[in-house]
Structures are given as structure tokens and as C-alpha cells.
Amino acid sequence: MDCMVTGGHVKVLATAIHSLSRIGEDLYLQPQEDELALRTVNSSHSAYACFLFSPPFFQQYSSCKSPTFHCKMAIKCVQAVFRSLSSLEKMVERCRIQLNSEKSRLTFTLHCKHGLLKTHNLSIQDCESLQAVFNKESCANVLRAQPRLLVETVLHFPTSVEEVSVSVSSERVCFRNHVEEEAEQSKAVLTELSLSAKEFEQFTVGCPGRVTFCLKEMRGLLMFAESSGLPVSLHFDEPGRPVILSLTESVLEVNFVLATLSEDSHLCNHFNNSTECHQNPALLPDDFMNDDIDSYLIAMETSELASGGSGCPPTLPRKASMGQLRARASSEGEEEEEEEEEEMRRPPNEKFRSLFFGSMLPTSSQATNQTLRTQEVLASDSENEEEDSSF
Amino acid sequence: MKFRAKMVDVGCLNHFTRVVNTISKLTKTCTLRLTTDNLFFMLSDKVANGGVSMWCELSQANFFDEFQLEGVSAEANEIYLELQPEYMSRALKTAQNAKSLKIKLTKKHCPCLTVAAELPSVSSVSRLVTHDIPVDVIPRRLWQDFKEPSVPDFDVSIYLPPLKTMKNVVDRMKNLSNQLVVEANRNGEMNLKIETDLVSVSTHFKDLGNPTWSDDASQGQSQGRAPEAMAHARVDIKKLQQLLAGQQVNPSKAMCNIVNKRMLHFILLHEDVSLQYFIPQWPEKRILGYKTPEKHLNSGSVGRKP
């Protein structure tokens, strides 16, 4: 493979790499005659991302001699080639990518201003092809919007929020953070954002309902979408079926496939007002009379009257919980860094259904979103075969 | 118990957000007291907080267009809540250009302070965002723990130099020591000092002016002092830095009362907000522990031992 990327397209490529690096650790490269595919999958196989660049994206593009060639490399190394996105735009004029399959080497040559030449030689590994099985067309719900809208939506959630639930009705869509445990609900802030269908370029809802998926990968896609300014489509239907976020342009196609929480875990996590949102999404409870918390008050006041000198049960737990909160807060401060690191390593929620990835022989027409109905066993890429045989 | 307030002015919203941000920089949890006229953010003197206490008072009429409150009873028409100001600060941050903002007490899965904002959108229909912030309702029996602190019987009261200047000085001193001595006299002079085994640094301010307090009682000690006699307090530099770093509301008046070897009492006044902050004297024991040179010896010998 030998290709040349010039001008603004260098930044597009670089942003794509950065966006992929938010998801997986390995970058899967597959140069084909009609497109260059960059793919990745996260460690728990609950998220898959794919960028397809067609030959006109490049100033010059020639694929491999062998049409079935694929390889992978650590994404961090590729990211290092395009370290600073802002300086890249100013400094780099052209980027040449050459593949030497005999030497297992991928070479990035950055032609910078003032005749400066930066060459990065990365070693590559042979691997099976990585392919998620999904079908955008079969999804009953399609929402398409300018990236700005979704970026602004995501901004309402602090970075500590891992999962978001999206519920749709015929007129509105509602994003809310997903809180796992019953116990955590009393500590976590619940944020809910309701958007009108009118804000979307396309708003097709065939199956009103709610799906829950990880926000991290969506942030990754939005990073790319925001920089490219391309509208983002959200394809989904029922819980447990993947959400597909996609971007399409004449020379570029991007698909992010994210697992969603399955129906049964949704049911466990139902709490009183969780369905309220899509039943009545347009209404903010505005009436003053409904906002009261009289029952809490009654509990407390009676305890005060009844207790006198004796023990007063409702207040003791309160004190205890406050103490716990403080203890938690102080220990959090100290261990924050460790925890963060741990979280990075920890694979996303086990409850997410893994996507099915085919380890398959590449066919001549390998459409990305081709569903493999004929193939019964869909194993992941060869390296993780044993681990993932249960899927 | 009911509470609902509405804000439509962007200026008020920004101002309120800055106040809450300031509070969230000072403490992880605090008590919000709501009365028909005022909002109070309070932190009472607890060892867990390093003995720091805070009292911030805002007049609701200057912020809210609607303010409805039904307290515990007619004679105790107030509500006390414990909350994490950080949550509130985050919620307000996402509502920065809201067309209107509502704050109300709601009963969700637990008692919540709900911040609901109507945000502008590209279409004719607004975006609606709500944040349910969990709170603890404080029963009336415990209200007595939260009383407005009285102005201590200080030795010297002095106006502070611009807080930004002070912040720059304290930020640099923080790299050298974890204790700071603030001293001032009735001649308008104030010094910020650090003293360690290796270095002593002090920054001198003069012509700051001393506020005159009409209340004679609190000036008992102050009156008898010679103008040039310094009163000082040694405090945790981090606590002072927190106060200075968190200052997003530019106060029209900032002053400090020093109770010699006991505490610093800061008063920051804005036209509609007042913030009081108390930092106690660094406990003597810890000073001794800090000054022993063992620490240095130990760290030095680690390298030499085989």
C-alpha cells in the first residue's frame, strides 16, 4: 500500500486516529482496492469503530498486491505520529503512508513546512480481519443532527457519567444519565435533557423506547464529527440491540457500533419515575403543589415530638450517612488518581452485551454493514479466541 | 415544605453561578438554609473540615424573579438542606445561557433540589434540561447547630489588599511551606510570612486602612492596642489559598479580623452577597511535628543506606 494525504485531509485522518484511540488499543488496518479501512474494538467488545476512506480522499492511493491483507498495530504509536492536532494543521503539508508487508512495517512520512521531513516506522502484526455485524437499515429509529447539537447535549453530563439512556417518542428525545444501583441513586445527580424533534434533520421513530449505552465512545465519535462538521446519524431500536452512530460523506464513511443494555437489566434498574420521561417528555412538572416533600417532613417532625430524650431512629441514619459521605469524600480525594487509572483499565460494564465480530475470510465485496446470516459462529479476532469463546 | 424559585435574568444567573462556584471551591458539603428573604450557604466549625467555617448570605430578591417558600411551619418558615455545592455548580454551569431557570425542592427517588433550565435551541421549541441534586433535609431539632457566627473579639481589623495580589503571593508561598502567618496592626500594615528551616519569606503591605467597627463590644481588645503592635495567626496555607482561589465574586469590600494566635476571620462584602470565612490557628502540636528535622534526615539517609 502506498498513499498520500494532503492539506486538510491530514487533519481528518489524524482526528480519526484520535477518535479511534478513545475506544480500542489496537488499530486494524485493511487496505483494499476501493477503500482503506481503519477499525478498532474495545477490550470488552462492547464497542466497535470503523473509518472507511475511499480512494478520492487521497491524492494518490494504491492498495496492496494481496487483496486480503490486513494488519494491526498499537493505536498509541499511530497517535504519536499525529500528536498535536493543532500544530499539525499549521506544520504538516502532506502525509505519505507506505506499507511494507515483507518487513512488517508501516511508514508514515510527514512532509512539514520548511522542508522538514518526519518519518515514523511502525511495526505491524498480522491478524484476522475485524468486522462487526450490524445493519443500519434495519433500525427502526433514526435521528440525524448537526454535530453541534449532540456535542451540546453531551456537555450537560459530567465526564464521570459513564452511560446515558436515550428515550424517544414521536416528538421528543430525552437523554438522561444511567445510574446503576438503587443505593447510588440517592447520591448521584440525575440529569435529563429533552430535545424537540424539530432540532433534528431527520427524526424517524418506528419503535418508541429507551436504550442505554456508554457515553465514552459517543464522545469519541463526536470529537471527530465536531471537527469535520458532518451530521451524525443515530440508528437504534430495542434495548439489547446495538446503537450505530454514523457519519457519511462522499469520500468517507464512519460507523461506531455500541452495545446497549439488554431489556432485563433495564427492568431491574427501573425506578419510579424512569418511565415518566418518555411517556410525558414534553412536560416539566411545573405545578407548585406537586413539588412538595411533605411526607419526609412528617416523618421528621413526628420523630422530634415522639422522641424526647429517647432514641430517635430517623435521625441517626441521617447522621451516619453524612459521616459516610464525608469519609467517602476524603478517601476519594486521596485515591482519585488510582481509581481513575483502574477505571481506564477496567473493561466497560459487563452487563453490556458483546457485539459479535466475525473472523471471516474476506470476500471480494466486503461491505461494512453486511449482515452475515450464513455464518453461525462469530468469533472475535484470533488472538482473543479462547477468552471470547463464550460469546 | 415547599420551595420553588425562578430566575430569568442572565446577569442574575451568572452572578448566582459565581457565588455557588465560590462556595463549591471552599467545601465539599454545606448546608443551604432557605428563608423567605435570604439564602444562606453555611459550613459550621467541624474538625473534619480543618476547623474552617463559612457563612454566605444572599438576598433572594436580588437574584430571583419568583420565590415561593413554605417552611416547616408558620412560625419556623425555613428549610435547611445539606447538599454538595459542586453538584449545584455543575448544574448551573450547563444552564449558562438559559432563558429561564427554576430551582425547586422535589421528591424524586429521594429529596432533591431540582435545577431546571429552559435553553435556547435552533428550533422554536426550547431544550429542557433538569438536574436532580440529592439533598438531605435537616430536621428542625438540628437547626440550632447553624447560627450566624458573631464577629469575634478581634485584636486587629484590617482591609485586605486586592485579593488577586494576595492570591499570587500565597500561591508562591504555598510551594515553600504549608503554614502561613498573617499579621497586621492598627496602622494599616499587614504581612504575610512563611518560616521554614531553610527560608523565611515575608510580604509587606501598607496603607491598607483599618475598618471602624461601631460595635464597641467587639473592639474591647482592639482599642487598647498600640497602633504598631502586630497581632498574628498561623494558619493552614491551603485553607487561605482555597478562599483566594475560589473568589469569583469580586467583593466591593474585603477585610480580615485577626484574633491574636487564635484565628482569622475574613469578611467579603458584595452589594448583595456577603461571605464570612473563619480559619483557625494551626494547632501547636502540628507545628512541633513539622519543625523537627527528622523528616529531612530520614529522606536523606534513604539514598545512602545500601
TrEMBL record, chain A:
Its main location: nucleus. Pfam families: Rad9 (PF04139). Residues 343-353 have a biased composition (Basic and acidic residues). One of its GO terms (biological process) is DNA repair. Residues 361-374 have a biased composition (Polar residues). Residues 332-342, 382-391 have a biased composition (Acidic residues). It is found in: Nucleus. Keywords: DNA damage, Exonuclease, Hydrolase, Nuclease, Nucleus, Phosphoprotein. It catalyses: Exonucleolytic cleavage in the 3'- to 5'-direction to yield nucleoside 5'-phosphates. InterPro entries: DNA_clamp_sf, Rad9, Rad9/Ddc1. Residues 305-391 are annotated as: Disordered. GO terms for cellular component: checkpoint clamp complex. GO terms for molecular function: double-stranded DNA 3'-5' DNA exonuclease activity. Component of the 9-1-1 cell-cycle checkpoint response complex that plays a major role in DNA repair. The 9-1-1 complex is recruited to DNA lesion upon damage by the RAD17-replication factor C (RFC) clamp loader complex. Acts then as a sliding clamp platform on DNA for several proteins involved in long-patch base excision repair (LP-BER). Belongs to the rad9 family. This is Cell cycle checkpoint control protein.
From TrEMBL, chain B:
The keyword Membrane does not apply. It is found in: Cytoplasm, Cytosol; Nucleus. Pfam families: Hus1 (PF04005). GO terms for cellular component: checkpoint clamp complex; cytosol; nucleolus; site of double-strand break. Component of the 9-1-1 cell-cycle checkpoint response complex that plays a major role in DNA repair. The 9-1-1 complex is recruited to DNA lesion upon damage by the RAD17-replication factor C (RFC) clamp loader complex. Acts then as a sliding clamp platform on DNA for several proteins involved in long-patch base excision repair (LP-BER). Residues 211-230 are annotated as: Disordered. Belongs to the HUS1 family. Signal peptide: none annotated. Component of the toroidal 9-1-1 (RAD9-RAD1-HUS1) complex, composed of RAD9A, RAD1 and HUS1. The 9-1-1 complex associates with LIG1, POLB, FEN1, RAD17, HDAC1, RPA1 and RPA2. The 9-1-1 complex associates with the RAD17-RFC complex. HUS1 interacts with POLB, HDAC1, FEN1, PCNA and RAD9B. HUS1 does not interact with RAD17. Interacts with DNAJC7. This is Checkpoint protein. GO terms for biological process: double-strand break repair via homologous recombination; meiotic DNA integrity checkpoint signaling; mitotic DNA replication checkpoint signaling; mitotic intra-S DNA damage checkpoint signaling; nucleotide-excision repair; response to radiation; telomere maintenance. It comes from the Eukaryota. The keyword Translocase does not apply. Keywords: Cytoplasm, DNA damage, Nucleus. Residues 211-224 have a biased composition (Polar residues). It comes from Anguilla anguilla.
